[in-house]
Every structure is written in structure tokens, then in C-alpha cells.
Structure prediction request, 288 residues.
Amino acid sequence: MNALVTTPATPRTPALTRSWVRVSDPYLLVLILVCATLLCVAILGPWLAPYPPDATDILAANQGPSPTHILGTDSLGRDIFSRLLWGARVSYAAAALIVVFSMVIGCAIAVLSAWFGGPVDAGVGGTLNVMIAVPGILVALIAVTILGTGFWAPVIAMSIASAPYVARIIRSSAVVERRKPYIEALTLSGVSSARINVHIVRGLSALILAQATFSFGVALLEFGALSFIGLGIQAPTAEWGAMVVAGRSELLSGNMQQTFAAGAMIVISVVAFTLLGDRLARVVGGTA
Prediction:
């Protein structure tokens, strides 16, 4: 027993490190490549765009695809391809912030709940079940109505709405991780609670990464939905959801390229990141 107490415990290898041993999965590699390409386009979009996003040319309004305008122009003569590239940065930045905020809040709740256990864990679990019973998009709609439109209001609202889902998913695994022998060894070795919780988070790193990737696609879709109904990004800012709305008035005249292009990018991005998150979760769970 004395040896157990006096000998520093060696934490196990983080799940993330072990899971990447299986990165040779070709399906996973393809998904990573697609998502990485989309992220690069979003980051480099302003430098790749041939025109400023708000540069208007009424004489060139509602033109179809041409060598000058690859995807044509909208009703104000703005280059759709350029607005698509600029809008990628806004949409992806919003989704990334939502994921970061919701994951930090959700993981903190989950780990602390697992650490204290007992009545605290039971109370947190019951509260999360009640919060999850309310659709997240409804919570976001109410919050945006109170906070206002724009960029930050939907981001904050959706982060709050998504946190309970993250907490519930991470909490069950955190409880299991909390009971692992290496955590007991760290406790007996006199390691502080804060450091032990850091080790718990490291042990959950692969699950957290998988959940974050999956949540990115969901956040992208819901942020676009808020812009679509007028509660998110407002004109003239280029953003995919707002572009879908702006293109609706042009559909009857046969100019569907703006709505189609923005909608296609949303669908491609959501599918790619959702599939990647699902695949990562399978790799982490050993079912891939």
C-alpha cells in the first residue's frame, strides 16, 4: 500500500493518441481531406475571391455564369463566387465559435458533475434531461429575439442551447473515466483535484474531438437557418444562409445560381463534417 501511495502514478496514454493509430482508414482520410479543403477555402477565401463581396455593378445584374463571373451575379451585380468565398469565412467562424463555447461549457459541466458524483451528478443529470427536452433551435430563437440579430447574438444563443447536449454526451463517459484505476492511483498519490480533472479531460480527448467535429456541421446548419429567417447575419454581409434568402427573389426570373450555390455549400459542409464526426466516434469506440 505504501508503494502505491509514494510512487507517482503514470497516467494512461490519452485515448486521442491511441485512436490515431487507426488513421490509415481510407474513408476517414478522405473525409479529413474534404473537411481540410473546405476549411482552407474558408480561411483563404478573401484572397481567392476575384472581387470584393459588396462591389456592385447594376449593368451586370442577374447575369449567368461567364468567364468574368464564374457563378454569375446577383440582382445588384455582385459577383456570386466572390460572395460565396467571403461568406464561407463568416459561416465557418460562427460555427467554430459555437462549437468552442458549447464544448467548453458542456465539458466543464460534465467533468465537474462526474468528479463530485452522488447528489450533484444526479441533479446535473436531471437538469440536463429537462433542458434537452426543449429543442435547441427554439432556445436559440428565443435568445436571439432578446439579444438581437447580427453575428454575436446567434453565436451566444446557439452556444447556450448546444451546451446541454454536449454535457450529456460527455458526462456518461466522464463518469466511467472517473472510476478508472489510474484516477484512483492519482488520488492516492496526492495529486490535486484540478490536475486529476485535466487527466480526465485528456482521457476523453478523442470523444471530445469527435463530438466537436459532429457539432460543427450542426452549428453551421443552424446558424444558416437563423440567417435564413432573418435572425442572423443581415444584408449586405456575405453569409451562406443570408445568400440563400437573397436569392429567393431571383428564382422566378430563372436566376437560381445564388440560392443553389450557397445552399450547396451548406449541404456539402454539413454532410462532410457530420460524416467525419460520426467516423471519428466509431474509431474512438472501436466499431469502425
Q: What stands out?
A: The chain is about 70% helix and 0% strand. Residues 1-21 have pLDDT under 50 and may be disordered. The two ends are 40 Å apart (CA to CA).
